[in-house]
Design goal:
Length: about 1400
């Protein structure tokens, strides 16, 4: 083959082939028109059949023209061209396999095939890219309006590009696997050719759909092609750059390239590729990554996926990435920390790690722990998730448990909701995977820990004593030498007159045995015999060891030297086979065995200490997680509930508090929370352990009964809702119900508490299935309401509560007009109830009143004509009181009784009798109006509707079969009229009931009216009737009687509010607060003028009264029954109450109020104004606590901007530096935005002159600093800098008059003097005024102030007002006249009626 006169150079762009780059470079001579392409393509096909793949050398211009006009060419021509080029390249690949094996390949043939290869590959790869671009465009065009992609469409010829790609890539892979270097003369294949082939792969990977599962084979084909390029053609550098670029621009390629790199490293041995890629990413500038959000996301996803697939290889290159841990990009920090976690899980786990691996593991764990306190919440959250995974896989060393648990507990208070949620998950994982015990009770662990620590201390003391006893022979010799020397001297030089004792000492058979004997004598401190035996042994064993040494010197020195050698020579000791000293047998045991036992004991104590510390941390976390159950985030609440379920399963006693605390969440409006609570109780209580149904039932009943121990009424109601849900779903089995009946009837042995719990549980179940109680009503009555009622009123009360479920469950359903369920008056239930109430009336018991209330409620709910039964009970009890009053005077009054009349020889009644009577009267009055407005009104409505239905049926029967259009129209009109008549009838019935209450119930002819003078007498004379229980009962009875009639209420409101304000008994004030709240709902127009006195109880010195007032005001405000503006700051002050329950109540109030539109936003300025007033008595730190809570509800941008403007303008009216600081602190609590900043700039004049105060200045800087961290726009940053400069100038040097004019010192020509801060009042807790001060204010003015009058102005007006008559309780002298004991206000002190509140037509009951 003759050599070609040109050489084909791969162009950088297609246009380069049209321009000549040199004399021997191929140039496209002519770009063919569209009309010529089909014919020329056919010629190329024919030439290919003749010349093979080398035909491209003469027809390249045709194919170049096809690529040039690709968008305009018919699809059939494109497909034909692609099919033809596939055949050409495939044929060329087959031919090259034999050509390249030919060692005699001539240079001309080599050049020819090289040019043909370049041309063929150029055309084919460009066709691939062109089809890929068309595929992307058609994919976008194929989206339907909903955004869902349609099925892949094929052309009429059946061509589908996605099916054609894979064979093409496999063909190129086959081509690259040849030894193409020979075509380049044995040199390296030019980089442009490899880039040409691999470029098609990268183009295919750019399509987002390539990551779908259906394209897995295509991805693998691309990976293998690139692997061949990497292994055979040194494509690493180009691939590294290309991959990092694509990761930066295409998010979907991260998992694809992670899989590819993993494949190359494991199957192709290209581990260096991992290092190159990580080094390239590690060298990225952290500041640049902060600006490149999409690139960071791709890099982070790639690192995470890669570390999960090949953690060991990534570990060896991890150091190049560590600089990004200090960068600003949280996504990169998350990725690197995730990679570390993967290495800890897959590579650096287990006990067999080498020292270097242990060090790396510890470094990674240190890094993870450090980032638990990262500045970014997403990083903290991710680290908690990683630790959760590590703990679940048991890869966390035991030595790290305490540190990580402590950090997790600290994160529970994180301001990020996600962090707190993940902290709960981590603690739950620690519990589920803890290595200590299945029971983690601190109490159970403390006792064995104390016992084992004592044992360890004993072992240590014993070992110390033993060690002290094991002194070296040299030390012992030094100690005994002085005495021994003196004894030798004494024996060798006896004093005159001393007689030597006759001693019988025998020499042993051998020198060694004799030496042994001498040593034994020395140890027994028998120095004389030891010396004598030594003298004899020296003579007997002359010249023999050990008696041959130390013979020089005098005799004393010689004996001392021999004894020293005998005692201290270790070789001699070793030669002694059986030492006579007892310690010789024990020393080896002491030296070897005890240390092993000591180590075991130390390990046991350490284990118990770790378990106890872990249990303490979990217990510490319980209170925090318990508070989180009422967060606004649904996911956090659900995690908190799941955590308590886990803790309960590990036997932590404090978990029961959390389980009870989650009960109110059953009323949550969020279905997810409600279902989580049900699921939690289902797991805790409906899956008890036991071998039989009976055992499981006993376990379930025992667990549920434990929940009700010392439980509040609210807790029991919540538990009842849960149990009724379970009963309705048949999740509580019949054996449980049978066991409860057995306990109630005492067929099974149980305590009184268990019996009472059984009745309560039966009542709860009756809410779901009333037949549980209905079928056993006689059993309940005969057993629970027998003559033993007075022995256990609580049991009888629960029996009444259980039976009442029959009334609540028999309400008619919508659309049904059935008569209500009622029992006849002669039923044994009412006979037993009447007997129980009247019998217990004369017995002193604090439990009688609650039982009586339950009995009266049950009678009114179930009896026909309940007023008759209750009238008989009331008459019987009154008769008993009268008989007691008429008893002979010789019977002394009981201790603690109050006279029923003015003292002076009259008979007296026991206090408890009067208390019982008043309680009965008040309860009957209340139940009577409830009965009228609910039961009677509903029955009247039912009968009316029934009558209307019967009339309608008669009308239908009387109508003719043939109805004209006119009659149809008349009937429609009649039905409409009937509807109007029905609405009017409702009003008529309500008016009838209201008229009965107002005019008849307390009429002089009625029974209740006979007790009114008694109630008023006791209420008007608190000094005379000073018993707390009696006063509370009288006050409550007065409140209930006021509920009956508007006229009676109006005439006695002064008395009621006087007692509410002046009474010294917290029980009275608390009861009257509840009564006043009910009256505000029933008679709002009457109570509205007294509203300030309701708010005044929020500052009551008694915690119980404040809590009651908070509850009442919460209901009234949320129901729009009282005015909010003006006094709502009193509710805000409860946020700093010393009692946690009251603080929680206040938080709940504002949380509910925040759901009522812009309520808090509208009230905030007034609250700030009142609480920042120095006369209010709220400390500065307390003010900030309140504001932090209230500003957390401001979430809308418009509200924020408006508040910024209002707060800035309020600086003009601020009088003290304290108010300046308060206002500036409020500004820091707002999430400032750019528009808010502009509002601040517009109102700069308002606060410029206040910036000299350092606290004010710092607050503005803090607000700007937080805004700076959240903005990215240069314009906004410039505004912030400008504002900071103005702040700085005003703070340091003041403002120039031309820039910022100062505020005028006068308004309307008058100069406003700066007032000195008022002297702080004495407060209780943090913000409470003493009762005396509150009462003193009330003495000054008991009239509702006019609106929009400040407290300061009101105080000034009061100082100039005339002196009011003093109102006092006369409790000093019992013989005072009755008119002096009256506690009512005078007529002129009664608040005037102001703006009435409109009421609905129908009066609502309690």
């Amino acid at each position: 083959m003759p050599p070609l006169p040109w050489e084909f150079h791969l162009p950088l762009s297609p246009g380069d082939l049209l321009r000549s780059g040199g004399p021997a470079q191929y140039v496209v001579q002519e770009v063919l028109s569209l009309a010529q392409l089909a014919g020329q393509l056919a010629e190329f096909r024919g030439a290919f059949q003749v010349q093979g793949p080398l035909a491209i050398l003469q027809h390249f211009d045709t194919l170049y023209s096809l690529l040039h006009h690709f968008r305009s060419i018919n699809a059939a021509v494109k497909e034909d061209a692609l099919e033809l080029m596939v055949k050409v390249v495939s044929r060329h690949s087959s031919d090259l396999s034999s050509i390249l094996d030919n060692l005699d390949l001539s240079p001309s043939d080599r050049i020819t095939h090289l040019n043909a290869l370049k041309m063929n590959c150029y055309v084919l790869t460009h066709l691939v890219e062109a089809f890929e671009i068309d595929s992307c465009k058609s994919g976008l065009a194929g989206l339907d309006p909903s955004g869902k992609s349609k099925k892949n469409r094929t052309t009429g010829s059946g061509f589908c590009w996605e099916e054609e790609r894979q064979p093409l890539i496999q063909l190129l892979t086959q081509l690259l696997q040849l030894n193409l270097c020979r075509l380049w003369g044995g040199l390296v294949v030019e980089e442009e050719f490899i880039s040409l082939v691999t470029g098609s792969c990268y183009r295919i990977l750019e399509k987002p759909s390539i990551s779908h599962q259906k394209h897995r084979a295509m991805r693998e084909a691309v990976m293998h092609l690139l692997a061949v390029a990497l292994t055979h053609y040194d494509h690493m550098l180009s691939a590294t750059l290309k991959i990092t670029q694509m990761l930066q621009h295409f998010e979907h390629v991260a998992p694809v390239f992670a899989g590819a790199v993993s494949l190359w490293a494991t199957e192709y041995g290209m581990k260096s590729m991992v290092g190159e890629l990580l080094r390239e990413i590690g060298q990225k500038c952290p500041q640049d990554l902060t600006r490149d959000a999409s690139g960071v996301k791709g890099y982070a996803a790639f690192l995470t996926e890669l570390a999960e697939q090949i953690p060991a290889i990534v570990l060896s290159n991890m150091s190049v990435l560590l600089q990004h841990l200090d960068g600003e990009s949280y996504a990169m920090r998350n990725a690197i920390l995730t990679a570390m976690a993967q290495m800890l899980l897959q590579v650096l786990s287990g006990d067999q790690l080498e020292e270097a691996a242990r060090g790396t593991r510890d470094q990674f764990l240190d890094t993870l722990q450090a980032h638990l306190c990262d500045v970014n919440g997403f990083v903290r959250s991710r680290v908690l998730q990683l630790f959760t995974r590590i703990v679940q896989r048991k890869a966390l060393p035991l030595a790290r448990f305490q540190a990580v648990v402590s950090l997790a507990v600290g994160r529970l208070q994180d301001r990020s909701v996600t962090v707190a949620k993940n902290a709960i998950q981590l603690l739950a994982a620690f519990l589920s995977n803890n290595p200590f015990s299945c029971k983690l009770s601190c109490t159970d662990l403390a006792e064995p820990l104390k016992k084992e620590m004592q044992k360890l201390q004993e072992m240590r003391d014993k070992r110390t004593a033993t060690t002290a006893a094991l002194i070296t022979p040299e030390e012992e010799w030094e100690a005994m030498q002085p005495e021994l020397r003196a004894t030798i001297h004494q024996l060798l030089h006896p004093l005159e007159g001393e007689e030597e004792e006759e001693e019988t000492l025998e020499i042993e058979e051998t020198a060694l045995n004799t030496a042994e004997r001498i040593i034994q004598l020395l140890r027994k401190l028998n120095y004389k015999h030891a010396i004598r035996l030594t003298q004899m042994a020296v003579c007997h064993f002359h010249g023999m060891e050990p008696f041959s040494s130390g013979l020089e010197g005098d005799k004393e020195t010689m004996i001392l030297g021999i004894l020293r050698i005998l005692y201290t020579d270790s070789n001699l000791e070793n030669n002694i086979q059986h030492p006579l000293h007892s310690s010789g047998d024990e020393d080896p045991v002491i030296e070897e065995q005890p240390p092993s036992e000591l180590v075991k004991q130390e390990m046991l104590v350490q284990y118990l200490q770790d378990a106890h510390s872990f249990s303490m941390k979990i217990t510490e976390a319980l209170s925090m997680v318990s508070r989180m159950m009422y967060e606004s985030s649904v996911s956090v609440v659900q995690e908190a509930i799941e955590f308590f379920v886990t803790v309960s399963q590990f036997g932590v006693p404090q978990a029961l508090h959390g389980v009870q605390r989650m009960l109110p969440l059953i009323w949550s409006k969020e279905p997810g929370i409600r279902e989580t609570v049900l699921s939690a109780y289902r797991r805790l209580y409906l899956s008890p352990s036991g071998d039989s149904e009976r055992a499981r039932a006993e376990s379930l009943v025992r667990s549920l009964s434990l929940l009700m121990v010392d439980a509040s009424l609210g807790t029991i109601q919540c538990l009842g809702e849960i149990i009724s849900e379970f009963v309705q779903k048949d999740e509580i089995k019949p054996p449980v119900v049978h066991l409860l009946w057995e306990q109630f009837t005492e067929k099974s042995v149980c305590s009184s508490l268990e019996r009472r719990a059984a009745v309560m549980l039966l009542g709860m179940m009756a809410r779901g299935k009333p037949e549980i109680v209905g079928s056993n009503l006689d059993v309940l009555v005969m057993t629970g309401l027998d003559e033993k009622v007075i022995e256990d009123y609580r049991l009888a009360q629960e029996v009444c509560s259980a039976i009442s479920k029959l009334a609540s469950s028999n309400k008619p359903a919508d659309g049904k007009n059935h008569a209500p369920f009622r029992l006849p008056q002669t039923h044994q239930l009412f006979r037993h109830l009447s007997e129980a109430v009247t019998t217990g009336f004369a017995q002193p018991s604090t439990l009688w009143i609650p039982f009586m209330e339950s009995a009266m409620t049950l009678i009114y709910q179930l009896a026909e004509g309940p007023e008759e039964i209750c009238a008989q009970i009331l008459q019987c009890c009154s008769q008993q009181a009268l008989e007691r009053l008429q008893e002979p005077q010789g019977v002394e009054a009981e201790t603690g009784t109050s006279p029923s009349s003015v003292p002076g020889g009259a008979n007296t009644l026991p206090t408890f009798l009067l208390t019982h009577l008043l309680s009965l009267v008040g309860n009957v009055a209340l139940q009577q109006i409830v009965h009228l407005e609910r039961a009677v009104s509903a029955e009247l409505r039912r009968r009316r509707v029934l009558g209307e239905e019967q009339e309608a049926k008669k009308h239908v029967v009387n109508s003719t079969k043939m109805q004209s259009a006119k009659s149809i129209e008349n009937e429609t009109t009649m039905e409409e009229d009937l509807g109007l008549v029905g609405a009017s009838a409702d009003d008529t019935e309500a008016e009838l009931i209201r008229n009965i209450c107002d005019t008849e119930l307390l009429d002089g002819k009625q029974l209740l009216s006979a007790f009114i003078p008694l109630v008023l007498k006791i209420c008007n004379n608190p000094g005379l009737y000073n018993d707390p229980a009696l006063s509370a009962a009288a006050a409550l009875a007065l409140g209930k009687l006021c509920m009956v009639s508007a006229e009676f209420c109006d005439s006695h409101l002064r008395l009621l509010f006087t007692m509410l304000e002046k009474s010294t008994l917290p029980g009275v004030r608390s009861n009257l607060m509840i009564a006043a709240g009910d009256l505000a709902i029933r008679f709002p127009n009457l109570v509205e003028p007294w509203t300030p006195h309701l708010y005044a109880r929020l500052r009551d010195p008694c915690q119980v009264v404040r809590q009651t007032a908070g509850l009442v005001m919460t209901h009234l405000i949320l129901k729009d029954m009282v005015k909010v503006k003006g006094q709502v700051s009193e509710m805000a002050a409860l946020l700093i109450d010393p009692e946690e329950e009251i603080v929680g109540l206040a938080r709940n109030f504002f949380s509910e109020l925040s759901n009522k539109g812009n309520a808090i936003y509208n009230l905030l300025p007034d609250i700030i104004s009142r609480l920042s007033d120095p006369d209010c008595g709220v400390e500065e730190e307390s003010f900030r606590t309140i504001m932090r809570q209230l500003f957390s509800y401001i979430t809308k941008d418009k509200q924020t901007e408006s508040l910024v403007e209002k707060l800035c303008q309020r600086f003009r009216t601020a009088r003290t530096e304290r108010q300046y600081r308060d206002l500036s602190h409020c500004l820091t609590l707002l999430p400032l935005s750019e528009r808010g900043l502009r509002k601040m700039q517009d109102n700069f004049d308002c606060f410029a002159d206040k910036l000299h105060d350092l606290a004010v200045y710092n607050c503005f800087l803090a607000a700007l600093g937080r805004l700076r961290r959240s903005v990215t726009r240069p314009e906004t940053k410039a505004l912030i800098e400008e504002m900071e400069q103005k702040l700085h100038a005003c703070h340091n040097h003041g403002m120039d008059s031309t820039e910022v004019p100062k505020e005028p010192l006068c308004q309307e020509g008058g100069k406003i003097p700066l007032l000195e801060p008022g002297k702080k009042r004495q407060v209780a807790g943090s913000c409470r005024r003493p009762m005396s001060i509150a009462n003193r204010d009330a003495d000054s003015s008991f009239i509702t102030p006019q609106p929009r009058v400040s407290r300061r102005c009101r105080g000034a007006a009061l100082r100039h007002s005339s002196q009011k008559p003093a109102i006092t309780f006369s409790s000093d002298e019992e013989n005072s006249p009755e008119d002096e004991l009256c506690a009512e206000l005078t007529e002129d002190e009664t608040p005037s009626k102001v703006t009435p509140i409109s009421r609905a037509s129908a009066c609502r009951a309690l």
